[in-house]
Design brief:
Elements: H1 2-18, E1 21-24, E2 27-30, H2 32-58, E3 62-68, H3 74-77, E4 90-98, E5 103-108, E6 119-120, H4 130-141, E7 146-148, H5 162-171, H6 174-177, E8 180-182, H7 184-192, H8 196-216, H9 229-242, E9 252-256, H10 265-268, E10 283-288, E11 291-292, E12 295-296, E13 299-305, H11 315-334, H12 341-354, E14 359-361, E15 364-365, E16 398-410, E17 415-427, E18 432-434, E19 443-445
Parallel strand pairs: 3-7, 5-6, 7-8, 13-19
Antiparallel strand pairs: 1-2, 3-4, 4-5, 9-10, 10-13, 11-12, 14-16, 15-16, 16-17, 17-18
Helix pairs in contact: 2-7, 11-12
Length: about 450
């Protein structure tokens, strides 16, 4: 009888602790039901408080998003509620903005409501043809411009597939079809803009990313002479899965060490890295990101495996790391509203070289997608500027993976090393800040 009581008590305690949050080691992750509620709350906030402003700014008063199941427009996919993992049949969403009345209609030319935020406006029994129903809906509202998602240079804004485009054109009367315009700027703005509520979640997510890296770069995971770089990679993958999270790319772990020639950029950026057995004295580097409630992180940090006679990271590596931090400072201080990515890149590289650094900058938008929409500040193989994406101006309330590296000559190793860093940053009201701090010291890994 005593045993039964104890079991019941333990079960009750466990259930009460996990009702809202799953605590796994030091990580607190919402249960699926609460995660879904948060996702829908964030989405409703975006529809209510963000989308009208973006439509006014883009001067598009009607926005059409059209997708079929399993072939979703990347923008439409970010608008689906938590209980919709994919579009259904052909899903058509219509946003109509009446600026004079300060209203925003959210309508679905579909058989279903799309969650609680977008209501079905198609009665198939009354009008069997979905395209005819759409045309009538547009005609009733008589918009000035009808935005559709096509873009030559921004893939995330190019989600309208040819079949749906052709059928849309065939079924719209000429007076409506003539109003079709690219919604490129509106689509990019929707993807790149972070709300206050999203930023709160983003800070937590980046902190979790940092904590997982700290665990991976520890003596509990790494045993010199035994643990391989692939072992740490799969630790990261398993950790993410065990926590009920996802990763949007396969992580990488690599080592730089004494007497080994620095790899070229193309080798360093290859995802097919050669497996190495981690040794004492290695400078380790990770590239790792996670996905949670519709947001993504992307982070690169360094650790050093202490030798038996070392109690801290060697000073020459500390000094090298400071140069990486300095390059970050140069880049982020150059980020100003309205500047293009190419302007920021050129100014940053010029200043860094004047200070004696050997820089490479390849910073990208971050948020709804890992490699997200917005301005691109360099690519590792495009240091003279990035056509089109680099010409897009920096906007407020946007997030970036501050990704870059600087090569540093290490006399003690008689070679160059590369300090490769990446941290989530937020550009607000013309002010840059790190979403959850940044690495300022190489992590020491004790081996005793």
């Amino acid at each position: 009888m005593k045993f039964k009581i104890v079991v019941i008590l333990v079960f009750c305690i466990f259930f009460s602790c996990t009702k809202k949050v799953l605590v796994k080691n030091q990580y607190s992750i919402l249960e699926e039901k609460d995660r879904a509620a948060l996702k829908d709350k964030l989405l409703e906030d975006r529809f209510t408080n963000l989308l009208p402003e973006l439509m006014d700014k883009s001067e598009i008063d009607m926005w059409l998003l059209i997708s079929r199941e399993y072939n979703e427009d990347p923008v439409l996919k970010t608008m689906l509620p938590a209980t919709w993992l994919n579009a259904r049949r052909r899903t058509i969403i219509v946003f109509y903005r009446n600026k004079e009345k300060n209203t925003l209609e959210r309508l679905a030319v579909a058989r279903y409501n799309i969650g609680k935020s977008i209501k079905s406006a198609w009665d198939k029994e009354k009008e069997p043809n979905q395209w005819v129903a759409l045309a009538e809906m547009i005609r009733e509202r008589n918009p000035k411009k009808i935005g559709i998602n096509f873009s030559k240079h921004f893939p995330l804004a190019d989600g309208l597939v040819k079949t749906d485009y052709d059928e849309l054109k065939e079924n719209l009367p000429e007076e409506l079809g003539s109003k079709l315009v690219s919604a490129e700027k509106l689509a990019i703005a929707w993807i790149e803009t972070r709300t206050k509520k999203e930023l709160e979640l983003f800070r937590e997510l980046v902190k979790i990313t940092h904590d997982i890296i700290d665990e991976a770069f520890s003596k509990e995971v790494i045993v010199p002479g035994v643990t391989s770089t692939d072992d740490v990679v799969w630790f990261l993958r398993q950790k993410v899965t065990s926590l009920g999270l996802e990763t949007w790319f396969h992580p990488t772990i690599d080592a730089q060490r004494n007497k080994e020639v620095l790899k070229s950029h193309i080798e360093s950026f290859s995802k097919g890295k050669e497996e190495q057995i981690i040794q004492k004295g290695d400078l380790l580097h990770c590239d790792f990101g996670i996905t949670y409630v519709g947001l993504n992180t992307d982070c690169q940090q360094h650790a050093y495996v202490l030798k038996d006679d070392e109690k801290q990271v060697p000073q020459f590596l500390k000094d090298a790391f400071k140069k990486g931090n300095r390059l970050q400072d140069i880049l982020t201080s150059s980020m100003k509203f309205g500047k293009t990515g190419n302007q920021i890149l050129s100014e940053s590289l010029s200043q860094a070289k004047e200070e004696g650094l050997k820089p490479s900058i390849y910073t990208h938008p971050l948020g709804k997608y890992g490699h997200s929409a917005g301005t691109t500040i360099g690519m590792w193989d495009s240091q003279n500027g990035v056509p089109f994406k680099g010409d897009y101006p920096l906007q407020k309330n946007t997030a970036y993976a501050i990704e870059l590296n600087t090569s540093v000559t290490i006399k003690e190793w008689q070679k160059d090393i590369r300090i490769m860093l990446e941290e989530a940053g937020f550009f607000g009201d013309d002010i840059f800040e790190y979403v959850n701090e940044r690495q300022t010291n190489i992590k020491p890994i004790e081996t005793k």
